[in-house]
Amino acid sequence: MTATAARPRSFDLARAADYAAPGALVVVWLAFFIATPHFLTLDNIGDLLVASSILAVLALGQQFAVVVAGIDLSVGANLPWAAALLGATATAGVPMGLAILIAIAGSVVVGVVNGFLVGYLKMTDFIVTLGSLSVVSGITLLLTEGNTVAVSSPFLQAIALDGIGPVRWFWLIALAAAVLVWATLFRTRAGTHLLAVGGGPDAALGTGIPVRRVRLAAYAASGLLCGVAGVMLVARNGGADPSLQTNYLLSSIAAVVLGGSSLFGGKASVAGSVTGAVLLTSLVNGFTIIGISQYFQTIAVGAVVLLAALLARFRK
Amino acid sequence: MGWNLRRIVAVTVAAAAVTGMTAACGRGGDDVKQASGPRIAIVTRNFTNPYWAALRDGALAEGKQRGVEVNVQAGTSETDADGENAKISTLAGQGYDCFGVVPVNASNVITPLVPVARKKTPILNLDSQIDPAASSAAGVSYASFIGSDNVAAGTLAGQKMLTALNGTGKVVILQGIAGEQNGINREKGFTEATGGKLEIVQRAPADYEQDKALQVTEAILKAHPDITGIFAANDTMGLGAVQAIKNAGLAGKIKVISVDGIKDALASVKSGDLYGTITQYPYAEGQLAVQACIAAHSGKQIPQRVVAPIAFIDNAVVDQQIASFPKPFAPFDNPLAPLVAG
Q: What's the superkingdom here (chain A) (predicted)?
């Protein structure tokens, strides 16, 4: 095998890998469409997109950490942390608007601490966010004494269930987040810096980019979107569940990787990450409708993630 | 080049395998569907806990017997509120005629049930109570509550403990997770039934865990070696207590009664280690849920509260219960039976 002969073929495969998420989405939707008449209905696709919204927002946050060649494992705890803050403040009688801001701010603080440790103290991203995953989870359990706090707010309930006509609020929140993240990454100088730092921190430093600050900003942005997702989680569940959300953590990373972003940084796809989130949610949704045991559901989700990782091998 | 080709083939095969699996399973599911009766959706916490698995099996068996479609779904753990809610809102858009829901806690399922309630689909509250005030604030109401009476289970345990100890002695209560309502109710029933007769020298939480119950009981036996009875709020703790008693060389001197009627507990009763267990019948609960849905669908008035059966299993009846597990070994008073007859 010579280098010249291999180049066009692996180039094609690399391109194919970029379309892994939309391609797999079409295949999965088609398979469910064949399997059941209840899948491809307006009602169900509407709900599917609502169910995907929280994961999509979370994945968009994860996207920031991944684009600077990092990873944010703390979202598994940061998500219930935001939810618990919202639950605690709302129960204490704080007005809902302020409670939501406090919840989001709380998640940003976690992101800033992660970013400071990774960016300024040059600690390994994996270990830092694994550590904060555990610390934040503990703080959350202390705050709530391990109990779910019921948040029965007509405002949050309306956000979860209603919308403008047939357009649900959850879709709009996810869409707004996606547009903002896309604009930040590809239309601002900050975005150029993020991509440059991810592509090669030494080179970025050489061109005068404040690498440490950029890293901090990336984790803070991850925290911010995690906070938004936490508020959505409370709205959907009508309460703040303090337990660790490992499913969301793994799925957020999987969605980003499925979407075509490189875990080695410097490459981002906003549409891809959102598609990845919809794909992972589609699997669970479709299996639920068909009535397949949940054990198969986790196997299939895992298999899709492994396939994505395999495809990622062909990317440059 | 050969390597690249091999990789492409591998990817294709793997992709085909995943999609093939989904398609194949789906067709299998469709064949079972019958259009005659109501389509019933039941959602519980998880299937890893044998208790919920038994509820699922009872519901599926009843659906099969009566020729109606029953889809039972669950989250991934006892506390997976979000996973459970995702299942509810997915099923809410599928035109089911009746919902049965076991909540993770008193409030988690209310929001996803709002769309179901808006369609005027009957909802059954199964096993654990959903907060009535928060439900009605959100416009959700329940056609019926189907579940065991945990106070009654505690009371029955207390009565049997009194008989076992000839009406006197020192006892200990092993509690479940702090704040968990079913455990609180069991303890309440036991305390009331034994009040003024048995002396409860200690109430210790062991979080429904066998290992924790073992450690807690070992410590208690050092402080109170003269106790003659232990009431554990669930079977796994009861089994932990039994082990601790054995380890301390006190086997036969301290009688342990627990609640649930899981397989391991029945085996322990059979071998003479556990004095008895108050069994609940989640399998019957699943059957009752399907019956209630059928009755509600045919326009019949169903009772506000349907109490699932409980029974005390000691050495005398343990063989019968093991043989009929997970079904009740004796017939029980079912208020729904006349509504779904014929």
A: Bacteria
